[in-house]
Amino acid sequence: MLELVHDAYRYRELIWVLTLKELKIRYKGSLLGYFWSLLNPLLMTAVYVVVFTAFARVGRFDIENYPIFLMCAMFPWTFYQQALSYSVDSIVNNGSLLRKVYVPKMVFPLAVVLANGINFLLSLLPLAFFLWFFGIPFHKTWLYLPVPLVGLALFAAGCGFVVSAANVFFRDTEHIVQVFLRAYFFFCPVIYDLRHIDPKYHFLLSWNPLLYALDGFRLALFYGELPSAGQAVLTVAIGLLALLLGYAFFRRFQDSFPLYV
Amino acid sequence: MADAGNHFKIRLRDIRQRYKRIRKRSRSLRETLRRLYRREPILKQFDALKGVSFAVASGETLGLIGRNGSGKSTVLKIIARIFPPTAGTVEVNGAVSPLIELGAGFHLDLTGRENVVLAGVILGFTRREMEKKLDPILDFAGLQDFIDTPLRTYSSGMAARLGFAVATEIDPDILLVDEVLAVGDVGFQEKCLARMNNFRRLGKTMVFVSHDMDQVRQVCDRVLLLHEGELLAEGKPDEVIRRYLDLLRELGPDRPLRQRIR
Description:
The structure holds two protein chains of two kinds. Chain A is mostly helical.
């Protein structure tokens, strides 16, 4: 762990340059360019709003300002989802580089997570605009946001380490990740909230490592409430644990990456 | 340098490199499961280096020659720390600039300028340091007019120019050159050889892999001949090159490279 922090600091220039590269290249050649990173969660929100309010008439959720309710968790979820789906091939895509020069391998998934984190931070601006537009007051609980943000980013980095390393040896990982993300989305409190779910399922849902981070965002942004201190600690602790395990896995295999990419 | 008595820059001791390749290079879960089921061996092994030891003195230019697949590039990759050897020890004292293949680290979607900065940062420089080196690099490569166009518009020769310029302009202690001058035109090749000779005068250390025996004669102080992963000869360029040409004659017309699977 210390080694990871030390290396990340030592190669901070490289990580930063790769992060910028990531942001620059992703939308190169697309007309709306950077705005896609905002449009993507917005359009997804629109889709779910239409599905839930018009088609399904899910009056039983009975949430006021459902679009905003949705957005407050959809934006952080999109961060996680994009971070994972772009980091899965971050090592493989840089294969030609790894075979020719010595590069610390961990910079690639980290740069992807960082780039998506920046995207997410920027998406808070339009989110704030929508909150204002729908007349939801800005609560002081915005100050709590760094906690779920850090928890989510650490968790994303840990997952990114695992999938990017696994993908070197099994290219199937890419596809598995896409399916996993789609399924996991419904297990996460994004389109619903724990309080709408029958309490007998709470035990099952409480195993979700992203529960506290996503819930934290919504509590602070939408409800203007703070989670319990225990939940705040868990948010970060789960992220740290994921990072630790993920990096241990990555490290175990990183020396042979150049031989297999 | 850690050890005061060190007069070598690079020392390899009894280096072995065994490549394990997954058969047929298909790396999907389905294939693997099927092979496990059929008890086919999943890995095939290939010994690229079978115990190679040598040292390169400070200020020396060492040439590596041998047929394709003899292990030359593997040696360079191990010196450049790209992967650790299967067995043996490597000591390298000083900053290495790996010029293993020109264009390492270049990204097609980025402009020439962005690529220069990226390549420099990969080699351990800061962005500001690289911005300063940008002009001399472009001067040497002769690519000022193309600096803000994406690399995908470059020809392979132009990318090679940029790569050589970056690798030499960052002023490394040790320069690794692998078969890179073949791409550039004659004028640029001469410029590169001149720069490499200049490197020698400055007392830098170089490891040079080439199939062009004239270049090897021009640049190297000492030459190693590798054959099927073993060190066959070592000494003055003329002697070793003669030995290599004899070896090629002994082997007769170019035969298929042996796979050595076990």
